Structures are given as structure tokens and as C-alpha cells.
Amino acid sequence: MSTPGSSADLSTVDVFDLGREHEQVVFASDPASGLKAVIALHSTALGPGLGGTRFHPYASTADAVRDVLALSRGMSYKNALAGLDHGGGKAVIIGDPRRDKSEALLRAYGRFVQSLHGRYLTACDVGTTSVDMDLIARECDFVTGRTVAHGGAGDSSVLTAYGVFQGMRASAEHLWGSTSLEGRTVGIAGVGKVGRHLVGHLLDDGARVVVTDVHAPAVDRVRTEHPEVTVVATTEELVASDLDVYAPCAMGGALDDDVVEVLKARIVCGAANNQLAHPGIEKALEERGILYAPDYCVNSGGVIQVADELEGFSFERAHQRAAGIFDTTRSVLDLARTDGVPAALAADRMAERRMRDVGRLHGIWLG
Ligand code: NAI
């Protein structure tokens, strides 16, 4: 997926051009609490937009708008491919969550989300937590990702890691003819909430696991839980080592030209969002014979979980749905082979087809 308006400057560009693919962009302001938020709905073809609220100290409003437009578009594709009855939405709150977050600000934000009458459903993202969702929910009916005490599902990283593991099994089958990762070496960059759970799945399957993280306590925790894991000092060292699979589970942009050039792994499959640093990287990966399992295809376990919560959370049901990431990844890789295109493009095609074919049904008037 390209990032619309990624190089645009709000002072020189018509905001309608910047968000020309989007249905609605809402600017919400409450000076008394310091709230400055932007809510973007990319598409509601499949249902109300679902996506988290990111609380981040953007350098400018233009940066915040660019981010929310790209993120909400990404959610349309992720939700469509995950088979959810949800469109793509996302929100950003401009500010430093550690300094600027307050009850009044979150509740003011909740009132703006409420004013959209369910067109947008919010959840956690970078800088917001389930506790924040509980506060927002005091003003708003359209909130998920809540605390267990309030009927929520808790930490979404458990199912995200499980889904990534399923994507990895499907990728292994596609490339090596077996879903098992036994005897394979898997490198994980970032052993935070998701990466740490992924380590457990891989070891259970008989894989050798190599990890790295910039945060020493994260590495220490994995070492304590799984002493058999190998630790390397940097991501640079990890990607250049003898891996069969590379799992980026830290920040976006993990796959840039330098990484693709040195990467020894034959499969890339990880949780991080927006792994491709720029358009064209997916082709470079393919030319090097590296199978890239599209990030938004394999990391949808978290959104599957928060979507399930809207029905009254059932871990078994959500787990079952996350297990479906295996079949989805397999279909994406099969389509890529049939159409002769990179898997990233095949995933986009499948998501767009579902938005078009299922979204069209909303045109059938129910009376
Ligand atoms: P987290 O913040 O718990 O873990 C990220 C880990 O990466 C941290 O331990 C951090 O120290 C480490 N890290 C940061 N920069 C690094 C670098 N340059 N090299 C090595 N390690 C580095 O985040 P979480 O929840 O585990 O998410 C990981 C990724 O997966 C993120 O990109 C997130 O957006 C994505 N994701 C997470 C979902 C979830 O349910 N938690 C759902 C879908 C995507």
C-alpha cells in the first residue's frame, strides 16, 4: 500500500486532495483539557471503522494528519483481510501521553467519538491503554480493548503473537512444503509484548530462536523464561546472521534497502506494522528470493480480539478466528504465485476485492 500524501505539506496542499480516498476526517478540539485529536474514517464499506487511538507528540498537525490518514487506510485493509465486518478508522491525539493525558482530556475525546454515532469504534494503540479506554467509555458507547474488569479482553498481544505464528507456519509450508518450524532458526527483533509470546510458540514447535532488543529488561525476561534462546546485541547483527526466518516485532520500517541486501532469512514474518520502508521493497525482497508475509495479514490477531470483544469476549472464539490467519496467509501466498506478484500486492488485491464485493451488498436496501 502506498501512503497517501506522504510527502505533502498541509500549507501547500488541499486537505481534500490529501485524504481523497477517505470518507471523513474529523478535527476535535477542547482547549480547556488540551485535547487536539484527528479521527479519520478511510472506508466504512464493510462496517463501522475500527482502529485504535494513538497518543503521540507529533511535531506538527500535518504530521498527525498524515499519520492518521495512512493508519486508517491500513485498518481498512487489515480488517477486510481478517474477514471482519469493520471498515478502516483510526484516531490520533496530539500530545505527550506521559505529560498531557488526563481524565478530562480522554473524556472530552470520548464525547467526540460518541458524536460519530458508531461510525468509528476506538481501541488502544501506541500511547493509550485499556485503562484509558475505560475512561473514554464513560462518555462513549463505541469503545473496545477495555480492561478485564470492564468486560474487556485484556492484552491483545497474546493473539497477535499466535496469529504471527500461524502466518509463519503457512509461509513455511509455501516455501518448504511443511508447516513445521522444527530445526529452523528464527530471529526476532523486539521481544516486547508480542515478540515474547512468539518465542514460546516457536520453541514449542522445535525452532531455534535468536532475539535482540534495545531494552535490556525485555531481553532479561525472555532469558529467564527461556534460557535456551540465543541473544545478539543488535538488529544489524541479527539480520546478517544465519536465519531461516526473520520476525520484525519492534518498530515500522524494519525492511529497508540495507536490511534486504544482507538478510539471510528466506522468510520474513513478524508483528510490526508497516514493515516495508518504502514502496518497491517488496519487489527487492522477491528478487532476492525472500518470501515476505504481509504485516497486516499476519498481525491481525489483536484487531480480531478487540472486534470479538464487541460481541462479548470469548477467548475460544477469538482464538479460533486468529487461527484462521493460517488460511488467509496461505490464500495470499497462493494468489501471489498465481498472479505472479509480490505477496504484499496479493494481500492488497484480496482486501480490495472483499471491500468491493461484500461492501457492495450494503447497496441492497433492507426497507
Ligand atoms: P512493545 O512496545 O511491547 O515491544 C516492542 C519491543 O521492541 C520493545 O521491547 C522495544 O524495546 C523493542 N524495540 C524497539 N526498538 C527496537 C530496535 N530498534 N531494535 C530492537 N528492538 C527494539 O510492542 P508490541 O505490543 O510487542 O508490538 C510490537 C510491534 O507489533 C509494534 O510494531 C506494534 O505496532 C505491532 N503490533 C502489535 C499488536 C499488539 O497486539 N500488541 C497488534 C498488531 C501489531
Number of helices: 16
Count of folded domains: 2
Span between N and C termini? 37 Å
Largest sheet entry: 6 strands, mixed
What does this structure look like?
This protein is α/β, with parallel strands linked by helices and 367 residues long. The protein folds into two domains: 10-76 and 87-150, 3-Layer(aba) Sandwich (Rossmann fold); 157-299 and 325-350, Rossmann fold. It contains 16 helices and twelve strands. Strands 1, 2, 3, 4, 5 and 6 form a six-stranded mixed sheet that branches. Residues 1-7 have low confidence and may be disordered. The structure holds 1,4-dihydronicotinamide adenine dinucleotide. 1,4-dihydronicotinamide adenine dinucleotide binds at residues 156-157, 160, 189-195, 212-215, 218, 235, 249-251, 271-273, 299, 302. The site of 1,4-dihydronicotinamide adenine dinucleotide has 24 residues, from helix 6 and helix 7.
Question: In terms of topology, how is this protein built?
Answer:
Elements: H1 15-18, E1 24-30, E2 35-43, E3 49-50, E4 53-56, H2 61-81, E5 87-94, H3 97-100, H4 103-114, E6 120-121, H5 130-136, H6 157-176, E7 185-189, H7 193-204, E8 208-212, H8 216-225, E9 230-231, H9 235-240, E10 245-248, H10 257-262, E11 267-268, H11 281-287, E12 291-292, H12 295-298, H13 301-309, H14 315-323, H15 325-339, H16 343-359
Parallel strand pairs: 3-5, 3-6, 4-5, 7-8, 7-10, 8-9, 10-11, 11-12
Antiparallel strand pairs: 1-2, 2-5
Helix pairs in contact: 2-16, 4-5, 6-7, 6-13, 6-14, 6-15, 13-14, 15-16
The site of 1,4-dihydronicotinamide adenine dinucleotide has 24 residues, from helix 6 and helix 7.
